[in-house]
Amino acid sequence: MVAEAPSIHVKDLTYNFPDGSAGLKDINVDLPPGSRTLLIGANGAGKTTLLRLASGKKLTTNGTLLIGGVDPFKMGLEGVTYLGLEWVLNPIVRNDIYVHELLASVGGNAYPTRRDELIRILDIDRRRVQLTMGLLRPWSILLLDEVTVDLDVLARSRFLSFLAQETMTRACTIVYATHIMDGLAGWPTHLVRMTLGTIRKFGPVEAFDLPPLPTGREVGGLLRNSALLELVLGWLREDLEERGPRGRKMQQTGR
Ligand SMILES: Nc1ncnc2c1ncn2[C@@H]1O[C@H](COP(=O)(O)OP(=O)(O)OP(=O)(O)O)[C@@H](O)[C@H]1O
How far apart are CA 132 and CA 125, in angstroms? Predict the structure, then answer.
């Protein structure tokens, strides 16, 4: 990890949506410089909301949010990149502009080495150029909101290696919200577990008890999952049991 990379510090942060509904409650998280964090939680747990707040796109309702020691909303921070699906699936990629022209339009020619490396790693075609455009400028904080759904497993694996390499060679810090645990073993340095707008637990990967895997390549005829996926499956089952089925209230009141 590179020491001058920014840290992420969130203290007693509560956020309500403009319609008054609760978004995040009492969030406390500390992620060190140069860390690679996986943000994990069921649909609707608040991952996107937290990432967008950290990117400075929303005003924090109360509490403290500091990226590299400063408030991203007030400072309009340079070097904080938020990439979500709305960015990578933007229909711009379906028009006829060439890859190099698109990359040049976001300053690609200023970073020829990064541009060419990203083109190689992502095996760029028009669908992937959008992701490259978002990653091109050397960010110091990357907030990724599952952007790899469109990548095949080889491209995703190379992309994850590229991100790990970035944190080891430049001053940068990554938070990645994903539901796809495939190929992530060994990638994160930290985990954050979110449930219903709250942080359930966070810390270095070593602080989490990864469930023991059954020995042998197969279990009951199925290939075994990674320890990370087993851990996350356990969390989501627990969340589901605690929360109950969606729409239960509606069903009850409708009877
Ligand atoms: N602008 C908004 N106004 C009111 N409620 C919202 C708004 N945006 C999101 N929500 C609600 O807040 C909750 C958290 O949403 P969020 O998108 O942060 O979850 P998430 O963990 O990223 O989910 P997913 O895994 O499905 O992307 C959800 O119940 C969502 O419906």
Answer: 10
